[in-house]
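ok so dumb question maybe but i'm new to this and my supervisor (M.) told me to 'just get the structure for ABC transporter ATP-binding protein' and walked off. so i did the thing. is this what she meant?? sequence i used:
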Amino acid sequence: MSGISIRGLNKSHGPLHVLKNIDLDVAPGDFTVLLGPSGCGKSTLLSAVAGLDPIDSGSIEIGSVDVTETDPSRRGIAMVFQSYALYPTMTVRRNLSFGLQVKGTPRAEIERRVARVAGMLQIEQLLDRKPAALSGGQRQRVAIGRALVQEARVFLFDEPLSNLDAKLRTETRVELKRLHGQLGATMLYVTHDQIEAMTLATRVAVMRGGQVEQYATPEELYERPATLFVAGFVGSPA
Ligand code: ADP
Ligand code: MG
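this is what came out, is it supposed to look like this??
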């Protein structure tokens, strides 16, 4: 299993200093949630780990390998983003297998992985449908499935449930937690929703203004918030 180690990370968008000297160590197999208000830099931090946007300074290790200069496709990560655009002309099966095919994964291996993930997400019945024939929740499962078939060591999620209604959000949350247990992978998950954070995470990094204000278990955050901001954000009685 691979942990994530971030050291002295700085990132600006134009004149805006978005990430301010971030240090964060995510233990292998952890489910870490980045929690904070809109605009505090959560997505920027996730993009930096993914390698989608160059950083200004600092370093990122995944599984004890320095990936700071490594291409996103070679970092051993899989991503699920807020806007989960599926390929509209492809069936669910093709949506799941396409990325693996492009990478040259053997056909039998692709079939094994698609069957496994479809079973995990209970979307076996949907494999021959096109996205237009799916509900929002089903589409979101397929988007998660598309990441899972990559069998990555590290999964990155950016507000993957924000387009779902309350009931589906709760259901998918339970499912993600179960999947985490089943996969034994490291998860880094962005949300601005404290309930989502407190129920999903093994550890939560509370962010404010481009910095990590506290990194602790949900219980610790609630019982011993380091700052008033953390107390206010996680709703503890401090
Ligand atoms: P969060 O995900 O916590 O809501 P973001 O990481 O998306 O926050 O954004 C942090 C700050 O950086 C915000 O002020 C946002 O407007 C700014 N920002 C993000 N991406 C860009 C970009 N591509 N160009 C310019 N500013 C950006
Ligand atoms: Mg964001």
